[in-house]
UniProtKB/TrEMBL annotation:
<protein>
    <submittedName>
        <fullName>27-O-demethylrifamycin SV methyltransferase</fullName>
    </submittedName>
</protein>
<keyword id="KW-0808">Transferase</keyword>
<feature type="domain" description="Methyltransferase type 11">
    <location>
        <begin position="84"/>
        <end position="182"/>
    </location>
</feature>
<dbReference type="Pfam" id="PF08241">
    <property type="entry name" value="Methyltransf_11"/>
</dbReference>
<dbReference type="InterPro" id="IPR050447">
    <property type="entry name" value="Erg6_SMT_methyltransf"/>
</dbReference>
<keyword id="KW-0489">Methyltransferase</keyword>
<dbReference type="InterPro" id="IPR013216">
    <property type="entry name" value="Methyltransf_11"/>
</dbReference>
<dbReference type="InterPro" id="IPR029063">
    <property type="entry name" value="SAM-dependent_MTases_sf"/>
</dbReference>
<dbReference type="GO" id="GO:0008168">
    <property type="term" value="F:methyltransferase activity"/>
</dbReference>
<dbReference type="GO" id="GO:0032259">
    <property type="term" value="P:methylation"/>
</dbReference>
């Protein structure tokens, strides 16, 4: 079974990375900082010229569509239900989940900065009584056994040094019959060592999963029953074109955020990362259940 741990970063190191660079990702990658989804992988009006702000907004809307699909996949509604967002980032999907379904949501992230930003987002949405956020390690979740009815992880497992351990922790905190929805990237074509290092430098993660079925295999090993595996690679392509537009239009703000020297280095690395995403990265979504209900 696959459980890549080479060149791992601890949760503390990943959190520190996002404390430092999270604002860059928010600035360039949409408000959810996840990939967006388009039916058939085609934007509705691909020929229309967009400003950087329009590109950022379209990307955010595509991220919301994917979040809504995952909400439907999780299939939990009602104030009596508790859902854990594993790797919640700045909380936009968590807030959308709570607003749409009425569940009591908890988000966990390794970044203290993101924890504060997510709590502020929930307060602005008037949902502070339905959502709480905490800083912690997904491989050592600070929650009792069988305390959640469902959990999801949107592009967070790629950061975990021991993905099997993180899945076993998700299994532990779910109640029998609880559902896990996991969506993340994998190497559709094998990365070279240089490309692995590039991704590690750009995103603070070990090597991506090596196949579309890798997460499903690990979920089974952790004790889950895998209900469904979907390959969503073909629907996310426009993400990378929009990020390029956003980056170009917001370049002065990036320089203000990082400083001129770091921004110049990013000018060289960013196109390489986006091209790698376009040509060699895939995307999978796994739905699994903890047996016993």
């Amino acid at each position: 079974m696959e459980n890549p741990v080479e060149q791992e970063l601890s949760a503390t190191e990943v959190g520190a990375w996002y404390d430092r660079f999270g604002d860059l990702y928010s600035l360039t990658m949409g408000d959810s900082m996840h990939l967006g989804m388009w039916d058939g992988g085609v934007r509705p009006d691909p020929g229309r010229a967009l400003s950087s702000d329009e590109a950022w907004q379209e990307l955010t809307q595509a991220q919301d569509r994917w979040t809504d699909e995952l909400i439907s996949e999780l299939a939990l509604v009602g104030e009596g239900r508790r859902v854990l967002d594993i790797g919640c980032g700045t909380g936009r999907p968590t807030v959308r989940l709570a607003r749409t379904t009425g569940v009591q949501a908890t988000g966990i992230t390794a970044s203290r900065t993101q924890t504060a930003q997510a709590a502020e987002r929930a307060a602005r949405a008037g949902l502070a009584d339905h959502i709480d956020f905490t800083t912690g390690d997904a491989m050592h979740l600070p929650f009792p056994d069988a305390s959640f009815d469902g959990a999801w992880a949107i592009e967070s497992f790629a950061h975990f040094a021991d993905r099997l351990l993180a899945l076993r922790e998700a299994w532990r905190v779910l109640r029998p019959g609880g559902r896990l929805v996991l969506a993340d990237c994998y190497e559709a074509s094998s990365f070279t060592d240089e490309e692995v290092r590039l991704f590690r430098t750009g995103f603070a993660l070990p090597r991506l999963a090596l196949s579309p079925g890798a997460y499903a295999d690990l979920a089974r090993e952790a004790g889950f029953t895998v209900d469904r595996v979907r390959d969503k690679t073909g629907e996310f392509g426009p993400t990378y074109d929009l990020i390029s537009l956003v980056y170009a239009g917001r370049r002065p703000r990036i320089a203000d955020l990082l400083g001129p020297e770091a921004a110049s280095q990013l000018d060289l690395a960013y196109p390489l990362v986006l091209e790698l995403c376009r040509t060699k990265m895939g995307y999978t979504a796994v739905t699994a259940t903890k047996p016993g209900f």
